[in-house]
Amino acid sequence: MAKTEVILTHNIVGLGGESDNVRVAAGYARNYLFPQRLAVPVTSANNRQLESLKQKRAEREAHEFNTMSELAKGISKLICVVKVKAGDDGKMFGSVTAGMIADELKHQFDIALDKKKIHLEHALRTLGEHEVELHLHGEVKSALKVRVESLTPVVAPVETTAAADARTEKPHTEKRGKRHETESAQPAEAKPKAAKEGKPAKAAKPDKKPKAE
User: Is residue 122 assigned to a domain?
Assistant: First the structure.
């Protein structure tokens, strides 16, 4: 396939930035780059445009750096919530990808972020909070908190009836035993004594008068 040299007049991801001299397929340059004014052929006349193109590139990169630096400060304070399907035990069906996080950032905060800037070592497969690294710019990195939640509430394990009965019976048995021990510890004479003390005292008989002689 024939190649040709061109000078880029705009930044093209994966190819280069303004003022870069790159080799591309001749058909790609002829049918796309030149009609879209994204590049110009390498000629002595076009070479004189390099200085203005370099200045344009420096201004663009400075603007992108400032924009992404401000975004990094704001996005680090956000919590992006992603809802997924999960079983009653909390186990997820599927996983959370960079594309899903990018969609939620747009939906929740109106932040348009290329999913390629969201760096996941592996897809998120567990519920809870995760910290995801963002490569916003060549010199700007940040972190985003992502909270993965279940669409249906996770059901807590239910205590069995037998276990509940055992817990309620135990203190009741101890209480009865304690009362039994208290009663048995009481002196045997206590009851008769209490009964004896409960009777009214008999009145004392008056002394007999002495008989007259």
Answer: yes
What residue numbers bound the domain in which 77 lies?
Answer: 73-150
Instruction: Give yes or no for residue 95 having a pLDDT over 70.
Output: yes
pLDDT, tens digit, for every residue of 58-72? 999 999 999 999 999
pLDDT greater at residue 81 or residue 1: 81
Show which of 50, 70, 90 is a domain's final residue. Answer: 70
**DSSP assignment of 43-56, as one string?**
-HHHHTTHHHHHHH
Query: Into how many domains does the chain fold?
Result: 2
Examine the domain organization and report whether 145 and 86 are in the same domain: yes
Residue 110, CA atoms < 13 Å, CB-side half-sphere: 0
CA dihedral (129, 131, 136, 92) in degrees, to 10, reads -50
* pTM of the model as a whole: 0.60
> Does residue 118 contact residue 106 with C-beta atoms inside 8 Å?
no
